[in-house]
Amino acid sequence: MAKVHAQEISPIAADSPAQGKRLVSTMHDFDIELQLLLQAIYQKYQHDFRDYSVASLRRRMTQARADFGCKTLSELQGIILYDNAAFARLLQYLTVQVSEMFRDPAYFKTLRERVVPLLQTYPSVKIWVAGCSSGEELWSLAIMLEEEGLAERAVLYATDVNPQALRVAAAGVYPLERLASFSKNYIAAGGKRSLSDYYHAAYGAATFSRHLKRHVVFADHSLATDSVFSEVHLVSCRNVLIYFNETLQNRATGLFTEALVRKGFLGLGSKESMRFSANAQAYDEFAAAARVYQKR
Amino acid sequence: MTHAPFPRADAQPHIAQEAEAGTRPVPDRLNAPDLPSLHSVLGTIDAMLIGASAGGVEALGRILPALPADFAPVVLVVLHLPADASSELAALFAPRCKLPVHELSDREPLLGGTVYFAPAGYHSLVNADRRCALSIDEAVHFSRPSIDVLFESAAWTYGPRLLAVLLTGASADGANGMSVVRAEGGHTWAQDPTEARASTMPLAAIARGAVEHVLRIDDIVGVLSLRPVSAHTASNTSSGSTPLSEASS
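The joint structure predicted for all components is written out below.
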């Protein structure tokens, strides 16, 4: 059911998402420019945002247009095409979403209490944090694995399309003022110690212990264009799919299905659901409220 | 922005009000609203948006139960909440409403005759395929969900087939959204600031010239409670008359 993703470069009209096609006659100039911009980015930089959710992109690109001092997206496109540094800057608008450590504590509590005991039965465990962005939830998982005695047997793959976000994730340095809410979440998620045991505070920043990431592999990976790289036991992909349209959501969940072992787990954001996915039938609800699914 | 004082006239809800916000004229409050003409708008829309903040639970508690069982448009509601509130709004309102009430999930198809609440901690948007898209982009006017974000995205999708209603609230969220709805040809109603628990939100939209009709909750309930009438007799009912009985289900 997953639509074939057009890899070859083709004219816009043939390439645009189905939803756009239907409304083409009443399309806003902004939407036309947006599609052209995304096509230009794809052809020039091989970053594929053409199947991102238009509604979210409009807001972000309106902001980018203003910050770049452009009147139109067409003007912005001219800049992006001829200036790699400008594209690197624009990438931050296209991809970065900021999460929190232990965002939705119930999710991490469910992983700790119901999923980890099952993962314990494997001799080694591979976990894929897909779209890890600036790493808050990755570090949360690493801390949880440490406390549950699973860290030594685990490998975490932390992937994102944004190299700058990956660098932030790997550094594990967060502004100190964010730590109060992180700590609150950590406790609510069933944390067994104090979050401050895991970081060093200095100069207004909290630097998380490098020890925690000894089993983390950071990698540039696109859910839009890359394929599966490993078999895994748990995929945690939270609040990433919400930025994709139907086609790309189905591609991404297809990759997860392919990567997961039988009876492996998929964790989504608290308002995301497999209900509307083409891959829904590949999963059972494992913990419905926490949005943890188990592959059949 | 400076706000001219709004006289309170609690005892006489339909008596003409002098309403001036800043330098812009406030539309419509000099005469009692023409409920049948407002009602006729409901037949031309695919979606009704409602935005509310401080005092919103009470206002929604009057409006949502007044939606008749045969109300055809989808109803999308943003009520500002603390980000960590596990929102129970759908469960709170469902027993009092004739329409089904749900909290939005990502990719949810937006079905007519259904009330959806924006979940706490996310922005809710409408995609071109008339499904919900959520985002965790930064808060707008310190709010996530933001009324502006929903209204703007819905305006792009529904164009003129849209009614946006902005109720009580203590922030300027929604004003820009109302402007966009109007710019795309949609309809915009705001709660009369003189009766709103917090007047900042409707005032901000009025000051931007984004509001077509300033209405009391009583007016809105009255409009929703009018029975659909055959097209040609719609304008006969006098606006002072008691609204006809609620829809039978």
